[in-house]
């Protein structure tokens, strides 16, 4: 059934409006990062700076330890993504393939856990980390990120596992492959796009997370990048807008770079190589 021309025009118009809605904050952030102070206070702001400058970036690095904070965020985000994927992948396979009451209970737990706000979780997590003596440590923050990302990662990977035809595993078993060989040689390659997408989700979630890092990390040397960005706001609530925009712009780059690198794997064919010759 073909889509009519007015409907197609409406779809593209809605898509364009959505893209503009998403791109506006980032484009304005980039514009602000390169504006000198006199343009930041102008009553008639412009999209393109009349006199672009890198002074905001220099000032941002001079005022706050951005590189150290970025390294802390990178370590925490990478570790959380890897651990969450390693734990969620076998769990997702069991949940998707085993139609038992336990699997249904796990699925229900995943859905319900997403309704919990941060403020309800921080107190029990704080007490657990205190007993483990992991307060004010990056490993403790990684543990919290894994706990927070695991339910959604499990839900995502379970959907990818269900998309893999069970007949492929049955064919491998007929050919003499054992369970482990089938999972490694047949199922795992087909799950690669889902694993990459789940890892990307866990990484971006941990990289941008603010609340847990603010509560659990007290030493300035261990604070992550989102927490350090708040230091550009004074006690009176007045933001140092130029350096803040420059630092925030730099903070968004890793997520964009990671997505640009692996986006082909996310959108690649899920069943590449599934046809048996």
UniProtKB/TrEMBL annotation:
ABC transmembrane type-1 domain mapped to chain residues: 70-262
Keyword Cell membrane appears in the UniProt entry: yes
Coiled coil: none
Membrane-crossing residue ranges in chain numbering: 12-34, 74-96, 108-129, 141-161, 182-207, 244-262
Domain of life: Bacteria
Compartment(s): Cell membrane
Keywords, in A-Z order: Cell membrane, Membrane, Transmembrane, Transmembrane helix, Transport
One term under GO cellular component: plasma membrane
Gene3D superfamilies in alphabetical order: MetI-like (1.10.3720.10)
Membrane topology: Multi-pass membrane protein
InterPro entries for this protein: BP-dep_ABC_trans_perm (IPR050901), MetI-like (IPR000515), MetI-like_sf (IPR035906)
GO biological process terms, semicolon-separated: transmembrane transport
CDD domains associated with the record: TM_PBP2
Pfam families for this protein: BPD_transp_1 (PF00528)
Membership in a protein family: Belongs to the binding-protein-dependent transport system permease family.
Protein name: Transport system integral membrane protein
Species the sequence originates in: Streptomyces azureus
Lineage per the UniProt record: Bacteria, Bacillati, Actinomycetota, Actinomycetes, Kitasatosporales
